[in-house]
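Per your request, structure below.
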């Protein structure tokens, strides 16, 4: 975002990026409210010709941002990027149920996040910012989406081939580092708690092969090295001396890549969990040649899913009078462009995108009388853990970020200030983008 608020559009009146975003968000809110008003008017007992309804319609009409294409052509490059960023967020929000956390680097590789931005920006330009017949714009958009997908698929295959053939010295070190960076996931490097690591016997780590939940990439990469140790111990018939979390603290891996694993037999495939066929490993394991990149997994989950979910969710590709496809975009055309089997693509899309969720966050929401069966007490009940006094931290610290138990539908973030016990609280709502309610200077 440009620091200078007085960037000009070629007109005598300066236009600030804040004004541009505010105008677009009013339009977005107006579109949401218009849908609700229409649902309200569908009730036969509602008088749609009343003065009240007429005033609402007039207000919503004024909120419309109908001059987008001519305005976009007059904006300077900085303001265009600001507007495209806002439109990109709208599109990603629209696809949020099928494409969760689309730019989260702990869920998506660098190739995937770059593809998401390019795909959403192309859609924003052709759907909202360019003038001309909508059929022509959709034609160019379909071509753009296929180009983005093809480029990302090539990057996946090039990276996979380079990393899986480390003995080939013809690849420069800088190019290899770029391949690894493109395919890797980042992690906050948190410590993995002992109670999450150990099995029921408390004497060894849980088996990754039988894990019922999809494990976070950084967590799985750290646990995979321990699993390899256990596999070697069992193969050699010796006794294990290492208990993770007891004899040594285990932390999430900083950067990881998804590897492949082929079961020895069909019996193995029937017993193992879905994550048995792919597992995140540390980049060190790939550099040593201990793991191989799962190219098919990346094409399914980090390329195909992104493009097709955004294209099918945010764009209506139907052409009047054409029942057998539209010719601009389809799953079949996408699979041909990235050289991927159509049946495998359909199975991958039916499963949905991979969203690692284990271990779950252990931060509990604040006590709310409305959601509790217990009444208030004057003192601590028997068995209740005594609360520890929070200490001031040298840097700003996030205490909680999640659903507010007292206000359903709202998300609250609690931030403790640096060198202070004061906690600032910020409330946002997923359907009110841009609105944030702040409560400051409250001692937690």
């Amino acid at each position: 975002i440009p620091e200078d608020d007085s960037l000009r559009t070629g007109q005598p009146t300066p236009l600030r990026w804040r004004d541009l975003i505010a105008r677009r968000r009013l339009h977005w809110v107006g579109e949401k409210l218009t849908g609700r008003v229409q649902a309200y008017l569908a009730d036969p007992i509602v008088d749609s010709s009343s003065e009240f309804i007429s005033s609402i319609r007039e207000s919503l009409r004024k909120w419309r941002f109908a001059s987008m294409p001519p305005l976009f052509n007059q904006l300077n490059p900085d303001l265009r990027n600001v507007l495209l960023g806002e439109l990109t967020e709208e599109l990603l929000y629209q696809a949020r149920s099928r494409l969760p956390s689309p730019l989260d680097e702990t869920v998506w590789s660098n190739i995937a996040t770059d593809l998401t931005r390019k795909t959403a920006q192309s859609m924003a330009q052709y759907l909202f910012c360019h003038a001309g017949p909508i059929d022509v714009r959709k034609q160019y958009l379909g071509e753009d989406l296929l180009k983005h997908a093809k480029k990302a698929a090539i990057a996946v295959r090039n990276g996979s081939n380079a990393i899986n053939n480390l003995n080939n010295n013809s690849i420069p070190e800088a190019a290899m580092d770029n391949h690894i960076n493109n395919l890797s996931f980042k992690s906050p490097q948190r410590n993995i708690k002992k109670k999450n690591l150990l099995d029921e016997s408390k004497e060894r780590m849980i088996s990754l092969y039988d894990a019922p939940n999809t494990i976070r990439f950084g967590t799985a990469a750290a646990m995979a090295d321990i699993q390899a140790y256990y596999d070697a111990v069992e193969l050699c018939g010796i006794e294990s001396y290492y208990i993770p979390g007891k004899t040594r603290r285990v932390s999430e891996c900083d950067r990881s890549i998804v590897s492949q694993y082929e079961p020895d037999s069909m019996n193995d495939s029937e017993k193992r969990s879905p994550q048995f066929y792919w597992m995140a490993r540390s980049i060190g394991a790939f550099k040593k040649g201990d793991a191989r990149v799962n190219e098919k997994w990346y094409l399914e989950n980090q390329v195909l899913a992104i493009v097709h979910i955004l294209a099918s969710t945010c764009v209506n590709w139907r052409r009047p009078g054409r029942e057998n496809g539209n010719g601009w975009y389809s799953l079949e055309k996408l699979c041909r462009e990235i050289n991927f089997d159509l049946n495998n693509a359909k199975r991958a899309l039916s499963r949905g995108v991979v969203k690692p969720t284990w271990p779950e966050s252990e931060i509990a929401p604040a006590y709310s009388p409305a959601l509790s069966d217990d009444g208030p007490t004057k003192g601590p009940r028997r068995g209740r853990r005594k609360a520890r006094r929070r200490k001031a931290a040298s840097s700003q610290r996030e205490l909680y970020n999640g659903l507010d138990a007292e206000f359903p539908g709202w998300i609250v973030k609690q931030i403790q200030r640096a060198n202070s016990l004061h906690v600032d609280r910020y409330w946002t709502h997923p359907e009110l983008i841009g609105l944030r309610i702040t409560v400051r200077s409250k001692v937690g």
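The CA atoms of residues 111 and 184 lie 9 Å apart.

Regards,
D.
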